[in-house]
Write a structure and sequence with these properties.
The chain is an alpha+beta fold. It folds into five domains: 6-116, Beta-Lactamase (2-Layer Sandwich), CATH 3.30.450; 121-246, PAS domain (Beta-Lactamase); 270-376, PAS domain (Beta-Lactamase), CATH 3.30.450.20; 383-459, Helix Hairpins; 465-621, Histidine kinase-like ATPase, C-terminal domain (Heat Shock Protein 90), CATH 3.30.565.10. It has 18 helices and 23 strands. The protein has a five-stranded antiparallel β-sheet with strand order 2-1-5-4-3. The protein is rod-shaped.
Length: 625
């Protein structure tokens, strides 16, 4: 054995007492502790005298004979071993013992430097337990799991790696670079940067990324990678555990969905359509970019989307749309369709056809998700309006033309008679005949005057609603008519029968117009009822209506003519053998309909006609006594 020189031994002794490391001097033959420095005394919690009375192996829990036997053959060379020792306060410590044989004078000694490795040993033990638990779970996990040790190597790889990559676990452990080799070339930088981040920033608790790998059979697989840092209760880094999941199918579906959406956006964008979605549960609305662009906005300008519709919808359309959406929320219906106007960025109103349906429900069967499509139908609506206006104008011109033709005919007849009478009056010297002709001319003038009055009344009814809120007593109106027509009826040798109650509910309307309406109906009955015929005027209340019936025993109306009786200037008597201009019933109908009433006619030839007028009671008030 080569011993330390006296100079080197003195060097050791000089630094022994104040050294920051724990140091012992032990007799090589007996293992008795000769000396301990201050740091060792603090560690073992013994006094120097107590330690000097003990052998080194008395501090050890383990059998160290093999370690000492090894030391005997060191021949002056340093060596170390590990041992578990017990301190004075009964704590177990895991110690690394670095030993160098030395000779101090005539005595052979062991110079020991002691390192407390208890924490490292405990950490290692916990790591072994954690790895064991991890292995048990990972071995039966469908995902491919592995453990990255603190030195960056793969400490464990689960069997699922072979299903996902085609390579078995042993191949990954034996070839640490295999993982890098199977990463798709386009994702290599992504993976290497991730590894670098793990090495540099160990404080990040969890990291995830998606990348592609090349399967052993050449297929490309998408991987969802999640790595989780592992530390002990002292926040000591133990490594990373990672999980790789095959998401190839999901990625394909996402890509197909993306392509479908892009196709839909392209199709929708080119066809004046836009889509929107409503997450009802979270009350989140999202409009696509086409929706914004159709109204002249950018997608950013229509945010927040939850309130933009209320700002842009036409006031007259808002309630209809809200009512439809409430039916969705109430589960009354699952679909939505309405035409509505929205204001674009420059203030113009655009027409949209909005359609949608509920596509998802909650567990309690309440609507959860709604998808809608808005179609710009402004051009169609403008075309419809233009077409309607054209048709309206065409009908107006047709009516006007017919009106002029009929008016011309109605004027021409009395004017022709007047012209004839004027000729006769010029060539007649007989005073009586001249007076008789003058009376006839006066009658024709009255007929023309009546025609003009009727035309003016018809024109007024076409343009202005004269419905007022004046209280009207129908009983008084009908009784006044009876008085006014009494002489004419008597002259025609007809009989008028009235069935009017003493008390009649009042309605709100215009006395003059209602008088005119019933006058026109009674005038027709008088005109087409022969001498000794009967005319009956009845007023009654039935359910929610006041009903006025005018019955006659006149010539009646044929089935062919009955559908046309409310057409202006229509006369079944085309030869005009009876008086009248064909405006009586159209005028009566226009007035009655102003008060939400209706007029109906039934008739049988040679038996008579019944005209029935209904006025709703919702406009009727109690008649004062």
């Amino acid at each position: 054995m080569e011993f330390l020189s006296h100079e080197l031994a003195d060097f050791y002794l000089q630094g022994f007492e104040m050294n920051s490391l724990m140091m012992l001097r032990v007799n090589q033959a007996t293992y008795r502790i000769i000396d301990a420095n201050k740091k060792a005394l603090e560690f073992y919690q013994y006094s120097l005298e107590q330690l000097q009375s003990m052998q080194f192996d008395e501090l050890c829990v383990d059998n160290i004979d093999e370690n000492f036997a090894l030391i005997q053959g060191l021949n002056g060379q340093s060596n170390f071993f590990t041992v578990t020792q017990r301190t004075a306060n009964d704590e177990l410590k895991y110690i690394e013992v670095h030993v160098t044989p030395t000779q101090f004078g005539d005595e052979l000694q062991l110079f020991m430097i002691l390192v407390d490795a208890t924490h490292q040993q405990q950490t290692h033990h916990r790591l072994q337990i954690t790895e064991a638990h991890y292995r048990i779970i990972a071995d039966f996990n469908h995902d491919w799991a592995f453990w990255i040790t603190p030195d960056g190597l793969l400490g464990y790889v689960s069997p699922s790696c072979q299903r996902i990559t085609g390579y078995n676990a042993q191949e990954f452990i034996e070839n640490p670079l295999l993982m890098n080799d199977i990463i798709h070339e386009d994702d290599t930088d992504l993976w290497l940067n991730h590894l670098a981040e793990l090495t540099v920033n160990k404080d990040t608790p969890q990291q995830s990324l998606h990348f592609r790998i090349k399967h052993l059979n050449g297929d490309i697989r998408w991987i969802e990678h999640v790595s989780q840092i592992v530390v002990d209760e002292n926040n000591t880094y133990l490594g990373h555990r990672a999980s790789n999941r095959d998401i190839t199918t999901r990625k394909k579906m996402e890509q197909e969905l993306k392509q479908s959406k892009e196709w839909l956006q392209l199709t929708v964008g080119n066809s004046g359509m836009a889509t929107w979605e409503w997450d009802i549960v979270n009350d989140v609305v999202e409009y696509d970019r086409n929706w914004a662009e159709l109204l002249g906005y950018t997608h950013e300008e229509i945010q927040p989307a939850n309130t933009i519709w209320e700002k842009l919808v036409h006031p007259q359309d808002k309630s209809k749309s809200t009512e439809q959406m409430n039916k969705i929320l109430d589960c009354t219906t699952k679909t939505f369709e309405i035409e509505q106007r929205l204001q674009n960025k420059v203030g113009e109103w655009r027409w949209f056809l909005s359609r949608g349906t509920v596509v998802e429900y909650t567990k309690d069967e309440k609507p959860a998700y709604f998808i809608g499509i808005d179609i710009d139908i402004t051009k169609r609506k403008m075309d419809e309006i233009a077409s309607f206006q054209y048709e309206l104008e065409r009908q107006r011109m047709t009516v006007l033309s017919t009106f002029i033709q009929n008016a011309k005919h109605e004027f021409k007849t009395p004017l022709s008679r007047i012209n004839t009478k004027l000729y006769l009056i010029r060539h007649t010297q007989d005073a009586d005949k001249r007076n008789q002709i003058a009376d006839s001319i006066e009658s024709q003038v009255e007929e023309i005057d009546h025609l003009v009055d009727s035309l003016m009344l018809m024109a007024r009814l076409d343009t202005i609603s004269n419905a007022t809120n004046t209280t009207v007593d129908l009983r008084n109106i009908l009784n006044q008519l009876v008085i006014d027509l009494e002489y004419q009826i008597k002259q025609n040798q007809q009989t008028l029968i009235t069935e009017i109650p003493i008390k009649v509910p009042a309605i709100r309307g215009n006395v003059d117009d209602l008088y005119e309406a019933f006058l026109r109906i009674l005038d027709n009955a008088i005109r087409y009822t022969p001498p000794h015929g009967h005319i009956t005027l009845i007023l009654k209340i039935a359910q929610s209506n006041i009903i006025i019936e005018i019955r006659d025993t006149g010539t009646g109306i044929t089935e062919e003519a009955l559908p046309h009786v409310f057409e202006r200037f229509f006369r079944e008597d085309q030869a005009h053998t009876t008086s009248g201009i064909g405006l009586g019933l159209p005028i009566a109908q226009a007035i009655i309909e102003q008060y939400q009433g209706d007029i109906r006619i039934s008739s049988t030839v040679n038996i008579g006609t019944i005209v029935q007028v209904r006025l709703p009671l919702r406009r009727i008030y109690t008649n004062p006594d």
